């Protein structure tokens, strides 16, 4: 790999942005593709699949054999709220391969005793997210029911293009949330991306069941991103 391509690839990886190195196995020529770059035809379809799945593979395009070396950031989960659902969701998400961070300024809830072995931030979300911004490979689940804590990270997640944005609450609660977010300057299209009520509709009742529904919705959203689907979780 040429030095300039390696340097550009490392820059994308540090910024948690996906990239693919396309190498012609015939002459060894390589180029770097960033997510969003315009690529047409059969190569464009193969590149889109590689970005979606994160799997590297060789493809035949116009008589040439190309190797697509995919570099896709590991998806992570940021949970707003050190609540009962979070206590069940955090270990489940880790088992599924999602690094987890929990943010909650309420020090009575955000304690190591309640969340052992979890990256826990007993600080306001705006302070934490200023240091570690959200990105397109982050899922955000807002679970506090408190607009003073939930609204700012929801705005940040939608602005950052997080692949999943979910918020706990009834339809009535969410309707008020929508009003606040629209008044804050978000577009109706952005607000429509919020999954609320959060989680797949499996008639979940207890915190662990709700956590299962939330994680399932996160995984489905990540694995089907870029694929048009008519199904939408309630």
Which fold name corresponds to the CATH topology of the largest domain?
Rossmann fold
The H-level CATH homologous superfamily of the largest domain, spelled out, is NAD(P)-binding Rossmann-like Domain
Average pLDDT works out at 94
Largest sheet: 5 strands, parallel
Uncertain spans, ≥5 residues at pLDDT below 50?
Answer: 229-234
Instruction: Tell me the name of the CATH class of the largest domain.
Output: Alpha Beta
Helix count, DSSP H or I runs of 4 or more residues? 8
Structural class: alpha/beta
The 3D shape can be described as elongated
Determine the strand fraction and express it as a percent band: 15-25%
How many domains? The number is 2
Q: Summarize the helix and strand pattern as letters.
A: HEEHEEEHEEHEHEHHH
Strand order of the largest sheet: 7-6-5-8-9
Number of strands: 9
Rg, alpha carbons: 20 Å
Distance between the termini: 47 Å
CATH architecture of the largest domain: 3-Layer(aba) Sandwich
């Amino acid at each position: 790999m040429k030095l300039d391509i390696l340097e550009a690839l490392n820059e994308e990886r540090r910024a948690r942005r996906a990239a693919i190195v396309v190498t012609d196995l015939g002459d060894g020529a390589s180029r770097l593709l960033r997510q969003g770059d315009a690529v047409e035809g059969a190569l464009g379809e193969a590149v889109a699949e590689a970005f979606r799945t994160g799997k590297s593979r060789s493809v035949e395009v116009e008589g040439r054999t190309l190797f697509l070396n995919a570099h896709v950031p590991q998806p992570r989960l940021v949970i707003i709220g050190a609540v009962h659902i979070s206590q069940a969701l955090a270990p489940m998400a880790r088992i599924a391969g999602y690094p987890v961070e929990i943010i909650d300024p309420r020090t009575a809830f955000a304690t190591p005793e309640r969340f052992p072995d979890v990256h826990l931030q007993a600080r306001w979300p705006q302070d934490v997210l200023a240091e570690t911004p959200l990105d397109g490979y982050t899922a955000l689940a807002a679970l506090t029911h408190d607009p003073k804590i939930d609204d700012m990270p929801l705005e940040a997640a939608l602005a950052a293009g997080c692949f999943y944005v979910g918020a706990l609450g009834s339809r009535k609660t969410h309707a008020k949330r929508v009003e606040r977010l629209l008044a804050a300057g978000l577009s109706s299209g952005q607000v429509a991306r919020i999954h609320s009520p959060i989680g797949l509709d499996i008639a979940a009742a207890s915190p662990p069941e709700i956590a299962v529904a939330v994680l399932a919705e996160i995984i489905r959203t990540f694995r089907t991103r870029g694929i048009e689907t008519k199904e939408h979780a309630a």
